[in-house]
Amino acid sequence: VQLVESGGGLVQPGGSLRLSCAASGFTFSMNAVTWYRQAPGKGRELVAYISSDGGSTNYAESVKGRFTIARDNAKNTVHLQMNSLQPEDTAVYYCYTLRYRGQGTQVTVSS
């Protein structure tokens, strides 16, 4: 069983990144997925949620209008498109299902 995040990196303020969460070893299409992030010295923060069929999404107020979560169950993948990134978005981003968590991918927003 694996959840593997990718797509993080260093980006300037105002830039964009697209994170991916690839699943294997379980029935991904039956699982809702949540992206969380954790910045240094801070607690874990829910960023975005998507239901198992993709029909329902939810976002933290801090990212609404900038981030978009989507999934492709045929490819066992969830994406998080992040636009208009700001330094306060700097964190390690994790994808979760009810039972599993990935290793995280670092996002750094800095000039």
Indicate the radius of gyration in whole angstroms.
13 Å
User: What's the helix-strand series?
Assistant: EEEEEEEEEE
Q: Helix segment count?
A: 0
**Mean of all residue-level pLDDT scores:** 96
How would you name the oligomeric state of the polypeptide chains in this document? single chain
What structural class do you assign from the helix and strand content? mainly beta
Uncertain regions spanning at least 5 consecutive residues? none
Shape label:
globular
Total E-strand runs: 10
Strand order across the biggest sheet?
2-10-9-4-5-6
Please summarize the sheet with the most strands.
Answer: 6 strands, mixed
Distance N to C terminus = 37 Å
Strand content: over 45%
Question: How would you explain this protein's 3D organization?
Answer:
By secondary structure, the chain is an all-beta fold. The protein is 0% helix and 50% strand. The chain has strands at residues 2-6, 9-11, 17-24, 33-38, 44-50, 57-59, 67-72, 77-82, 91-96, 105-109. A six-stranded mixed sheet has the order 2-10-9-4-5-6, with no helix packed on it. The protein has a four-stranded antiparallel sheet with strand order 1-3-8-7, with no helix packed on it. A hairpin with a 6-residue loop joins β5 (44-50) and β6.
